[in-house]
Structures are given as structure tokens and as C-alpha cells.
Design the sequence.
């Protein structure tokens, strides 16, 4: 059981390109349908929590499902499984990248990859904006944060702590 | 000492990024590029491209890559461990209490507000890399084309980056 939890998450981590959001449907299929470790309702509750909690969503959901499947040891196995493939693959790439970074071909590839990365961040930003219920009434808040952090170099940590305090006060009043 | 600082920095990144991979990238930019100056803005953009093109969670990929560049294998282990440590603690607490907490108005409101804040943080990250990444006719063209391909035609990010890399090799400059 414990090894199977590790193997399931390792497989998903090793073969899913595109980050946490791409991993979620595969995790759901594996742990709900294929293995039956957790019910679909429980999984969806966990997914909502994983998106709320800080940190990588894929890691958060593996903590939740691993714990549901087999307590603390299940949680540990799920986390190791979802993180280890990245660790191994990236270390291998980082070792190679060091040798090839100065090659003309690599430099030319990155001259196009740089603007592509900007688009890569801009598109999910717009998608997240649509999903998070952004409206004319509350758009001032992310805009203010963008200006404070992007232009005035305010540390986000203070803004996050202030936001938490404000949110609690706002809900209580 | 640098190892301890890497661990602490990535614990902070893991603790204060809400909304998944892109929010974490925004925090990495704040802490690793702007505050610690461990990598440059251009290297940060490389890290984002590589993290997206390889399997696994983007945040883990980025933490491992930066950790390796800064401190070899030990560095990559420490940064990855750091970025997931807050997740493990907080997610465990949530797993044990979530069903009770999710009905509380103040609890819901915290995450509603933090999601909006994350939008602002990611927008700030975007503003900061824009100047480094989009500066001539070639890069403007690539930006517009890749934006339309992903936004309008739902091209997946991996294919989009591969096509961009090929375009760069053929038409780009070193």
C-alpha cells in the first residue's frame, strides 16, 4: 500500500508536463477511480483546500490524499512521490545546462523563449482573473498590489499579513 | 551559512505564496532575484522556461534548479525541502480541520482576498520581466504570437515553448 502510494504519485510527477494544474485530473483519476483511496467528494473538498493553502497545489493535494489513504506515512510517501521526479530530472538538466548555456544555439533559442515566457505568465493571469470573480468593484485591490510590489518595491509578505488581518476584520464586521 | 539562508528563503517563499505555481514564481522573483540577488532577471526567465518544459510542479522545478545553481545537489535538496515544508504543515492542519473551518465566514474571506492579492503579485512579476524579455521587433512578434496561440487557440504551454525555441534558433539572435 505505502509503496503503491509512492509509485502512483511518482508516475504522475514524472510524466506530466505543465505543472500542478495539469497533474490534478491525473491525480484524481488515479486516487479516486483507479485506486479508490478517497471518494470524489472528499477529493474535491481537498482540492479546494489545496488551492487555498500556500505552496504548490500538486504537493498540497498529494499531502491531503496521501493522508486520507494511509495517515502520516501515506502523506510522506505521496509527497516524496510527487517531488522526487522533479528533483532528479531538474538536477540532471541543471548539470547539462551549465555546459550548454553559452552556446550560440541555446542563446538564440532563449531570445524567443524569453518573450514566450511573458505570454506564458500573462495567459494564466487572465484566466485566474476570470475565475476569481474579478469585477470593476474589486479590481482596485490587485491593481494596488501590483503597483505597490511592481513599481514601489514593497515586500509582499507585509501585504499578505495585512490582507489576512483585513479579511478577518471585514468578515467579522 | 548560504545553505541556511537558502532554506529560510524557500520556506518563506512556500509560506507566503497563495494560488499555486505562478504565485510561487512571483515570490521567487521577489526573494531570489530582487532581495538576495542570487540570480539575475534574465536567469529567472530561463528558470521559468525550463520549469514549464519539464515534468512535475513548476514551483518544485524552479526551486530545485535555483538550488542547484546556487549550491549543487545539497542546495537543490534544501530549496525543494524549504518550499514544501510550510505546505506539509499547513495542509496537514487544514486536512484535520478543513470541514469545520470552511463554513466560517472569516476563513473563506481570507482566501478570497489572498487570491485577489496573488493576481496583483503575478501582475507585478509580469511587469518586472516585461522589460527584460520584450524589447525588439523579434521579441514583440514572438510575445504576440505565443500569447494569441495560448489564449485564443488553447495551445499547451509545452508545445508553445518548443515552437518558440525552434523559432529562436532559426530567426533569433545570440
Sequence:
Amino acid at each position: 500500500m505505502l509503496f503503491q502510494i509512492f509509485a502512483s504519485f511518482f508516475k504522475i510527477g514524472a510524466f506530466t508536463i505543465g505543472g500542478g494544474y495539469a497533474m490534478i485530473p491525473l491525480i484524481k483519476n488515479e486516487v479516486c477511480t483507479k485506486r479508490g483511496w478517497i471518494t470524489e467528494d472528499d477529493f474535491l473538498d481537498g482540492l479546494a483546500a489545496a488551492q487555498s493553502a500556500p505552496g504548490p497545489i500538486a504537493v498540497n493535494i498529494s499531502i491531503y490524499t496521501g493522508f486520507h489513504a494511509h495517515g502520516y506515512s501515506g502523506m510522506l510517501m505521496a509527497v516524496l512521490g510527487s517531488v522526487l521526479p522533479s528533483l532528479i530530472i531538474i538536477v540532471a538538466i541543471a548539470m547539462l545546462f551549465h555546459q550548454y548555456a553559452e552556446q550560440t544555439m541555446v542563446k538564440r533559442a532563449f531570445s524567443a523563449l524569453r518573450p514566450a515566457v511573458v505570454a506564458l505568465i500573462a495567459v494564466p493571469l487572465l484566466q485566474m482573473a476570470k475565475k476569481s470573480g474579478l469585477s470593476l468593484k474589486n479590481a482596485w485591490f490587485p491593481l494596488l498590489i501590483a503597483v505597490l510590489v511592481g513599481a514601489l518595491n514593497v515586500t509582499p509578505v507585509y501585504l499578505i499579513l495585512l490582507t489576512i488581518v483585513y479579511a478577518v476584520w471585514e468578515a467579522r464586521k | 551559512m548560504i545553505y541556511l539562508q537558502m532554506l529560510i528563503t524557500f520556506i518563506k517563499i512556500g509560506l507566503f505564496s497563495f494560488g499555486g505555481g505562478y504565485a510561487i514564481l512571483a515570490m521567487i522573483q521577489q526573494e531570489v532575484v530582487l532581495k538576495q540577488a542570487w540570480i539575475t532577471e534574465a536567469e529567472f526567465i530561463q528558470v521559468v522556461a525550463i520549469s514549464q518544459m519539464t515534468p512535475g510542479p513548476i514551483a518544485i522545478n524552479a526551486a530545485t534548479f535555483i538550488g542547484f545553481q546556487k549550491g549543487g545537489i545539497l542546495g537543490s535538496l534544501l530549496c525543494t525541502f524549504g518550499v514544501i515544508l510550510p505546505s506539509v504543515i499547513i495542509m496537514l492542519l487544514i486536512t484535520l480541520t478543513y470541514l469545520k473551518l470552511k463554513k466560517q465566514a472569516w476563513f473563506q474571506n481570507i482566501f478570497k482576498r489572498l487570491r485577489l492579492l496573488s493576481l496583483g503579485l503575478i501582475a507585478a512579476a509580469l511587469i518586472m520581466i516585461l522589460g527584460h524579455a520584450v524589447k525588439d521587433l523579434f521579441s514583440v512578434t514572438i510575445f504576440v504570437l505565443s500569447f494569441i496561440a495560448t489564449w485564443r487557440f488553447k495551445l499547451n504551454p509545452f508545445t508553445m515553448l518548443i515552437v518558440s525555441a525552434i523559432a529562436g534558433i532559426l530567426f533569433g539572435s545570440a
